[in-house]
């Protein structure tokens, strides 16, 4: 009996080592292919959807190799990547192209919260906190909004996990299907950028989908999405007031302000000389590559355990709310 248990432990340890080696190998290969552009025919195939897909396949087949490392790196690398993207954007052009989407942001945020409350609480009878977290993540910026509102709401770890899992699953799907739908509907760069920024949850998937669609779509989607993300602050304050959560710390997404500073610096300093333009383009190019690697880390977080924890009702709420905001945004773009 003891020998059987020892063999089982050794087998498990071997599989864990194997998974970790595979995980590290994938990260290294992705990094090499992305950062070494001079390798003909190799760097072009490593797109944001491909990186996310590789992460998903690894997590679903092997589990999470380094969950804590994966979570921490994906969080900070995404923030650094978004700031780096600011060095490739012109402030006036970005604000002008994203103006229409910014105006719709107010309507969509409030509308999504109300519709989410109705679907989750009245229709599906999802528990209050989980339903509120899913609505918050859909309304603003996915996991970042949930992470900010959760402590204010005093949500349990299980409720946070279910909400994050629901949003994450839909994010992964959106990165794959949104560019396909956009091309099928023959959407312009501006139309797709606006649609992606409002209808896709997390900043990572918004930027990834925008990058897959085109340069202008990327700039518009990023600008609108980060403007939308600023709503984390008033939402957390309103949540604190409504649910009487006094004294809870509000997590402010400071990287958004650094993104704006990067755009300002690029517009008024770097663009004034050829050397400056080259520097800005170099930083922007590096940021795109690190974003792609970030999507691998994010994909590697979606294990079978996460899928099991979500449950059917929260997932249905997330899907119904997501479809509602996606279709209504499309209607707004085409009819107004």
From TrEMBL:
UniProt keyword list: Cell membrane, Membrane, Transmembrane, Transmembrane helix
GO cellular component: plasma membrane
InterPro entries: UPF0324_pro (IPR018383)
Location in the cell: Cell membrane
Main location group: membrane
Pfam families in alphabetical order: Cons_hypoth698
Keyword Repeat: no
Keyword Cell membrane applies: yes
Membrane-crossing residue ranges in chain numbering: 21-39, 45-65, 77-95, 101-120, 132-150, 162-185, 192-214, 226-243, 250-270, 319-335
Record's bilayer topology term: Multi-pass membrane protein
Family of this protein: Belongs to the UPF0324 family.
PANTHER family found in the cross-reference section: INNER MEMBRANE PROTEIN YEIH-RELATED, UPF0324 MEMBRANE PROTEIN FN0533
Protein name as it appears in the record: Sulfate exporter family transporter
Annotated source species: Bacteroides intestinalis
Organism ancestry: Bacteria, Pseudomonadati, Bacteroidota, Bacteroidia, Bacteroidales
